Amino acid sequence: MAGPANHVSLETLTGTVSLDQASRTFESKVLEHRKLSDTGHELVLERHGLSFDPGMLITVHGPDITEDREYTISSGVNDDGISLLFRWIPTGRLTTRLARLEPGDSVRWSGPHGGFVLRDRSRPIVFVATGTGIAPCRSYIRSHPDLNLTICHGVRTGEDLFYRDDFSSANYLPCISGPGSQDLFSGRVTDQIGEMKIDLQAHYYLCGAYEMIFDVTGILQRAGVPANQIFTEPYYYNG
């Protein structure tokens, strides 16, 4: 998942990653390249012993600094590699390169950084995502499988329900806005949230398109959820 994040002090939110480590740059071999859908891809990179908190990002470097992009780590803290979920954009300079990578190829990246990390694992957690915005949630649940977690994942087609097999222990609510939803919720993820009973004690993590985050935040606040229980990481497709 690529895009800008809500950056906060690593010192206040994480106990695992030092600021010195956050500035390190690595050259990793691609261990796996999985095509998840027509445009969805997952890369697994050598980890080099990196420590990170679930929800953090790395910056993947292109040949030119203008091609650098941030991707949320989708693997768990105990996984062998660093997994990245991205969508191939035909006009995207970096994703076009990433989509051609094969095992053994090299990727230069730096990190980890970012503040979209779990604040309180004892709370009920509702994660709302569109598209590749599901990446941090996969890191959350692979790292902490005992979370009290509800997931609302909005996509256009069922093939873009990335990582759905990883969410069997959660209350998983996929939403299909395009045709062919069959037995799944038919509509936008905002429609799903609008029909849910809003838990005023839960923490809400919203990751994906700006419009979704704006709309879901409004639904939650009108229901009485305090602003300090809503955490967001917006992104836009930029290749």
Summarize it.
By secondary structure, this protein is an alpha/beta fold.
> End-to-end span in angstroms?
10 Å
Number of strands: 12
Shape type: globular
In the CATH classification, which architecture of the largest domain applies? 3-Layer(aba) Sandwich
CATH C-level class of the largest domain is Alpha Beta
**Number of discrete domains:** 2
CATH homologous superfamily heading of the largest domain: Nucleotide-binding domain of ferredoxin-NADP reductase (FNR) module
CATH topology of the largest domain: Rossmann fold
- State the secondary-structure class: alpha/beta
Biggest sheet, strands in spatial order?
4-3-6-1-2-5
Which range best describes the helical content: under 10%, 10-25%, 25-40%, 40-55%, 55-70% or over 70%?
Answer: 10-25%
